[in-house]
Amino acid sequence: MIDKTSPMPLYFQIEEAIKLKIEKGEWVSGSMISSEREFAEAYEVSRMTVRQAINNLVNDGYLTRRKGKGTFVSAKKIEQKLLGLTSFTEDMRSRGYRPASKLVSFQTINANQRLAKVLDITENHEVYEIKRVRLANDIPMAIETTFVPVDLIQLQEDHIKEGSLYSQVENAGFVIDYATQSLEASIAREAESEILEITKGAPVLLIERQTYLTTGKPLELVHSVYRGDRYKFMIDMKR
Ligand code: 16G
User: Fold this and answer.
1) Label partner for 44 (CA 20 to 30 A): which of 63, 149, 168, 209?
2) Distance between alpha carbon 208 and the CA centroid of its chain, in Å?
3) Could you tell me which PROSITE patterns the record lists for this protein (predicted)?
């Protein structure tokens, strides 16, 4: 499997061999991998070489080190296509996960200048500010802060707590049309890391979505913090 005559560096060959095992499902997520020594013996390479391969796989999110325990195969990332305009509830259900939310807060606030501009309302107009932790099979995936103009729709706290915002909007007779979304890399701050159950400074994805109804009216502005270790966004491109 490892070709010592190849110009490919040995650590890279080991990395590829491990990735293949994970991708083929031979090594399942959560299982512990062999020690550096065992790898070094099996591949007849130095422990330094093995360490380099494993470090790269940890950095790329394939493997996770747990202090005092060992190195484990990471949970598979959720792949989300940036194509259809879907809700968290729909995304999770379509992948066979059980969606849920923890409602952190639900209140009305007065729009500041930016909110007013984005939501096409006048400054100081009331907007709902909804903070939710979004979970898949009880694992926290993202923290979402959603702003919706109060004048547009009467939102029920109970429904938001239990169910889907988009279904509540659609059940009220609105048709959601399109959204613009930005995505940028960042690191988890202390409060975020506690909620998302990741270490402080771990990579996260910051997403901002502005969603519009078929009437042309803005429905929501949403700021989200997604776990970088569990999420992968896919974009199809055509030339
Ligand atoms: C997604 C959307 C968010 C929307 C929510 C509705 C992203 C980045 N954000 O999380 O804008 O408010 O779905 O979900 O995808 P719900 O209908 O399950 O409440």
Assistant:
1) 63
2) 13
3) HTH_GNTR
